[in-house]
Amino acid sequence: MIPDEKLQELRDRIDIVDLIGRYVGLKRAGKNFTACCPFHQERTPSFFVNPERRSFKCFGCGVWGDGLDFVMRMDGLGFLEAARHLAGVFGVTLPEGLVDRKSSEQQRELEKAREITQVAADLYREILESRPEGKLGRLYQQQRAISPELAETFMLGYAPAPAESGSWDRLVRHLQSKGCDLALAEKLGLVVRSDKGSLYDRFRGRLMFPVLQSNRKPIAFSGRILPEYARDADGREAPKYMNSPESLLYTKSKTLFGLHVAGQAMSRARRAILVEGNVDVVSMHQRGYAETVAPLGTALTAQQAAILKRFTDTVVLCFDGDNAGRKAIRAAIPILLDEGLDARVVALDPGADPDSTDPKRLAALLEEPGSALEWLVKQWVAQGALDSIDAQERAVAALQPLLGKVKSDAARERYAERAAKLLRLPVGRISSRQSPHGPPGPQGNRAAPSPPTRHAASPPAPARPLPELPRHQVALLALLVDNPHLADKAEQAGVQHYVTDRRLAPIAEMVVRQALVGENPTEGELLELIPPEARRQVHDAVFVGTFRDTQDDPVMLLKDCILDCRREQLKAESRRLDVQLREAKERGDLDRARELSLKKIEHNRKLANLDEHALIPPSQPPSGLRA
Fold this sequence. Notes:
RNA polymerase that catalyzes the synthesis of short RNA molecules used as primers for DNA polymerase during DNA replication. Helix content is 48%, strand content 9%. The chain is an alpha+beta fold.
C-alpha cells in the first residue's frame, strides 16, 4: 500500500479544479466551481468543486470525495491505479512495487485488460512510426494530411495486413511474447478464434484509432480500412470502420471518440462539433477545431448527449452530405433537444464530408451553423411537405413535439415563426399543441399523439416560487459555516435571534450546538435539516458563495454580520409599525395612533444609536419576524 505521508503529499498536490476541468466544463460560482454532474443526468448544475477543501460534491445524486475518488469513479480505476495515474500527472513519486491488497478478482481482470489494450496500442503505434510493415499506413497518414504531432496526440497506429507482416497473427505473437492472457485478448476483441481453433488478428490493413480515456489510456480501438484493402480476394467490400466489441473496459453508447482532447476545448469554444468518422475528427483537429468528437459505430445515444452536456450547451452536427449523413442528423436532433442542448447543423454539399470540404467554405459554415429545427423543416419541404394540406399537417405534427423540447421561450417562438414561413402557415398553427397527424414522408404512418379529451386531468398548478433568502442572514450563516471556531461568540451574541428565516435557522442552531462540543457538521448533514424544496436555494447561497469575500478578521466580520441583521430587524419592525399607524389613522383610532407613533420614535432611536462595536443580543426575539 501507499505510505500515509506519500498519500497525503499526492492529495495536497492534486489541483482538483484542473483535474475535474478535464472531464467537465466548470464555471466559477463564488468560491467554488460548478457544473452538471458527470455521474448522473441533469440539466441544472448541482455538482460543486471546492478548491480550498480539494473536494467535490453533487447535491443531486450525493456523490462526493477528493481527486482520487473522482478519477476512480470517472475512469473506473482501482485505488492504486488512480493513485499512480495522478502521481504522474501532478509530479509525485510513489514507491516501486506497490500492490493493492484489496484488489478484487474483477479489479485484477480489469487491470489485465488495460495492460493488454496498452500493449496492443504500443505495437500499432510502433508499426506506424517506424516498422517496415507500416509503410502503407504512413503513406495513408500523409495522404490524409495528418501531422506527426496529431498522430501522437491521438496515438494513431497501424495494424498491418498479412501481406505486409507475413502472417495473420502479428498481434497474437506479440501479446504472447509479453505474457498476456490470450483468452482475455479474445474477450476484448483484439484477436479472433478460427474454426480450427487457432487465434488470428482481428484488425488487419487498418489505420488504428485507439479510444482513449482522459488519462490517455486506451480502452478500445477503431480501425479504418486502407484503400488497398477495401476489397478482399473474393471482391467483397470490407467495412470502412471496424470497432472493438463492447467489453469490461468499453461501452460504445457511453463513449465519444476524441473526448480526451476535446473536453476542455468544448468548454472554451462553448460548443461541440459532432462528426461521423474518426478520420473526420482528426482532420477537424488538424484544421483547428479541437472541440470535435464522433460517436463510435453507432447513432448518437442519450448517454453521449449527456456527456456533451457536461461541457457545453451547443452541439453542431457536421455529418456527411449523403443520405446516411442526413438520416443520422434527423436521428440526433431529438436526442440533443431532450438533453436541453441547442442543436445546430452544418449542411455539407451532397457527397461531401468535413475532410473533403474546402477549408474556407467549412469555416464559413461553422461560423454560423443553422438551427437544427429549421434544417429539418427544409428537409420536409424538399420531401413534399408543401404538396398538400395533409402533408403540411403531418409536418406540423412532427415539429410540435420537437419545439416543446426547446427550453428557451424566445428561441421556441423564433423557430416557430421561421417554420411557419417555410411551411406557408400562420404561426399560430405551428404553436398549437394539437398534433392530429403523423410526421411527413415515409414516417407518416407513425401513430400520432392522441388529442386531449374534455375529461383529461388538468395540468398541475405551477409551484409557487420560494421567497428570496434574507441576504444578511445568509451572510451570517455562511460566515459560521466557514468559521466554526466562532460558535461560542455567536452563541453569546444570541445568533438564534438573528437567523430567523425558517429555512436557515436549523443550520445556525446545529453549527453552534456541534461546534461548542468540538464537532464540525458536514455540508450534507446541515442541508438535511432544510426542507427539500429549499435545499438548492440554501446551498447556493450559503455553501457556494458569501456576500463577504474578504480577508478581514472573522470576529469583526461576525460583529458586522450581526449588526446588519439587527439593523434589518429594526427596519422591518419600523415598516410594520408604519402600516399599523396608517391603518389606525384611517380608522380614526387616535389613541392607537398615538401609541404606535411613540413606538416608532423608540425604534428610530434604537436604529440611530445601534452600537457598532458590541455583540449584545436583543432582550427578546423580535416580534413578527420569524418566517
